[in-house]
Amino acid sequence: xxxxxxxxxxxxxxxxxxxxxxxxxxxxxxxxxxxxxxxxxxxxxxxxxxxxxxxxxxxxxxxxxxxxxxxxxxxxxxxxxxxxxxxxxxxxxxxxxxxxxxxxxxxxxxxxxxxxxxxxxxxxxxxxxxxxxxxxxxxxxxxxxxxxxxxxxxxxxxxxxxxxxxxxxxxxxxxxxxxxxxxxxxxxxxxxxxxxxxxxxxxxxxxxxxxxxxxxxxxxxxxxxxxxxxxxxxxxxxxxxxxxxxxxxxxxxxxxxxxxxxxxxxxxxxxxxxxxxxxxxxxxxxxxxxxxxxxxxxxxxxxxxxxxxxxxxxxxxxxxxxxxxxxxxxxxxxxxxxxxxxxxxxxxxxxxxxxxxxxxxxxxxxxxxxxxxxxxxxxxxxxxxxxxxxxxxxxxxxxxxxxxxxxxxxxxxxxxxxxxxxxxxxxxxxxxxxxxxxxxxxxxxxxxxxxxxxxxxxxxxxxxxxx
Length: 467
Ligand code: AMP
Ligand code: ZN
Hints:
Blueprint: E1 4-7, E2 12-15, E3 23-28, H1 39-57, E4 61-66, H2 84-92, H3 96-113, H4 129-141, E5 145-147, E6 151-154, H5 168-176, E7 192-197, E8 215-217, H6 219-231, E9 235-241, H7 245-260, E10 265-271, E11 274-275, H8 290-295, H9 300-307, E12 316-317, H10 320-343, H11 351-366, H12 371-383, H13 388-402, H14 416-430, H15 434-446, E13 449-454, E14 457-462
Helix pairs in contact: 2-3, 4-6, 4-7, 6-7, 9-10, 10-13, 11-12, 11-13, 14-15
Bound molecules: adenosine monophosphate and zinc ion (ZN).
């Protein structure tokens, strides 16, 4: 079976044919770094990471670019309100630059805990302003821009096929709804800012000089300019969450294709949302982070496992109990892999059967990344009658794509604070100080970590808080 991907642009599954096989250019919209990323954001990054790993497993040479939005993303996607970075600065009494730096680092720490591969290029918007200015100049030359009191705007009525990714119906909705509050001087409700002027009465912390005056780039131009710089004017795949379809990606297509006269991206892929009951928003502050999962005694990789329960194009409801059962399953799988490693005998492999089960697993992924089906094949292996060596081999092979670190012992990904306590406890036991060791055991229990002493040493189990 060939790799089939659902293309939001054509609204159907298509056989994937890269422009220059085996090379694949992949752009994924990155974080806006004014706060911690929430687990909803990470659902999208996890889907993109498994996708990239699957492409690489299938033999493609992927060039993965993910931007960092450290300027220009306004509180409303409709070019109004303050810059999120400056809002973060006021909230924390820091500079916008410090906020960007702090949350960029925090994002990559969390990403590492979720075992997300590092993108090959991570361009920051603040370091690519000249490229954005160049692109706006190209659009200006071709007559796609106009000036208002607050910035330089893209005239969407001049771009034939504007909004083709959403279909007319949604754009009509947009016209009468979402953007009403934007600049009254706009010629069309769907027009969007390419360059915003700094306010006259207030000094912005992040601003640049430009042919149009002091200001900063619009969020949409950032992604078009940076993706084309690193992947070329036409490239293979662009991903993001579904909330980006109607505005951000629609505008990216318009400005990129208007500037170059060439098709921008061949396949657009969008991940559905994680639902947590009330809308989880970084701006509202009501969100769950990777850090909050850890504080409750969860291994962040349990959340990665949890995300496999739904197709990336289906909504997924978050629940602490479901997450706890994902964690239990993950622990069980790791125990199996460890056990099968001890028991396995050389030559105990069943290569023919392995190949057929591997193909079955890969076919699930080749069918527009069907994660739940792929997971079902994994469970078939666990419960099936392959030899222990083959089972172990298969799970580790699948794990190259799933990224669950199945060969890691449970204790290896505990937070440093817990690891320190475990060390102290071992030391207390070694010196016969059992009162101290019991006290530490209680402290660990409070953090959702259970320690069982066995002849082979302490065995760690997690007991996360689910309410
Ligand atoms: P942002 O940092 O707001 O630019 O968002 C980063 C990524 O997370 C984007 O691809 C969004 O589409 C995605 N995203 C935002 N909220 C959710 C959610 N609840 N579930 C899944 N993805 C989301
Ligand atoms: Zn983007």
